[in-house]
């Protein structure tokens, strides 16, 4: 069995020693989804503007993406902007969009270096055209990579996704001339989701302590293992990811059955 043993982490302030998590590389989650929350609180603690928190959040994204690629995780989906996030002040929304563009432009060489294929889910066609263009470029330039599949959820809402899937499915059935309700099955609906070519997340991580889904992947997380940490997203490091994976490997998944 291939095990990844991490170097011990010694918390100098408290002189407490945290045992290194042991990770079985043969039992990695195939898909990790993360609700990256707490950028605003991180900035507030430092008396900085919220956007400074978002900027720091991008550094955490880089670390976690790279760590996931190195670990050998198949898919990583990051919740970056929800359909509800448009309710925020215009200035914050605009700055988030420019940060996203900055990230996409800078990241292509890094993604290629780590063999990462980039994708996006959500109501992408309602994003500003400049963002859509950068997304298309990043998708195109990383298309041939065969390692980690990194997906950003942008203008994403779980309910919106289900509505879009049902509309697509019904339109298809109508066109075929047979609107047969028996054709509406779980598999068929799944095929019309934004995530149709991704496995359901095995592990769902949320930072900043909030115990809610905030409209993320509502259908897909039916049997995901949920791991919540109080750590604010900009402080989330490789070590936190490894801890989440190590804890995930100790869970017993039953899918409603008996073991
Ligand atoms: C998460 O951080 C990033 C986005 C939703 C874009 P927040 O901006 O929600 O930070 P908090 O929750 O206010 O601390
Ligand atoms: C969830 O965080 C959305 C993203 C991480 C993009 P929010 O900060 O928007 O969620 P709530 O408002 O705390 O539920
Ligand atoms: Mg938040």
Describe the structure.
This protein is α/β, with parallel strands linked by helices and about 260 residues long. Helices cover about 40% and strands about 20% of the residues. The protein is built from 7 helices and 10 strands. The protein has helices at about 40-45, 50-70, 90-115, 130-140, 160-175, 185-190, 240-250, and strands spanning about 5, 10, 15-20, 20-25, 30-35, 75-80, 115-120, 150-155, 205, 225-230. Strands 7-8-6-5-9-10 form a 6-stranded parallel beta sheet, sandwiched between helices. A two-stranded antiparallel ribbon has the order 1-4. Helix 4 (about 130-140) links the parallel strand 7 (about 115-120) and strand 8 (about 150-155). One 3-methylbut-3-enyl trihydrogen diphosphate binds near residues 36, 38, 40, 85 and 208.
Q: What's the structural blueprint in terms of helices and strands?
A:
Elements: E1 3-5, E2 9-11, E3 16-18, E4 22-24, E5 31-35, H1 39-45, H2 50-71, E6 75-82, H3 90-113, E7 117-121, H4 129-141, E8 149-156, H5 158-175, H6 186-191, E9 203-206, E10 225-228, H7 238-249
Parallel strand pairs: 5-6, 5-9, 6-8, 7-8, 9-10
Antiparallel strand pairs: 1-4, 2-3
Helix pairs in contact: 1-2, 2-3, 3-4
Bound molecules: 3-methylbut-3-enyl trihydrogen diphosphate (2 copies) and magnesium ion (MG).
